[in-house]
Amino acid sequence: QVQLVESGGGLVQAGGSLRLSCAASGISFSINVMDWYRQAPGKQRELVARITTSGSTNYADSVKGRFTISRDNAKNTVYLQMDSLKPEDTAVYYCHAWRPPNAWGQGTQVTVSS
Description:
single chain, 114 residues, globular
């Protein structure tokens, strides 16, 4: 059974840091492109960061220089290091795997206070 389980969310003050983790099971992790998305209240879900099977990364303009996506294939885990957090980063953050098609985690809440 495919499972993506996010953890690491919470409440943090502006300027602080959080590290999100997504533990995957039931997928071929090492050959998967892995993504982090987020959805803020009243907004559509948006792609925050992507890491390919070769380790290439891509980021939304709004988080470039502040967020870092990484993966540990031995642990079947993808991470999102979030630094210099801003109130506009407040959202539910979701882990996503391309294979099997469109696998999603349940999300973890990140709240950044001003």
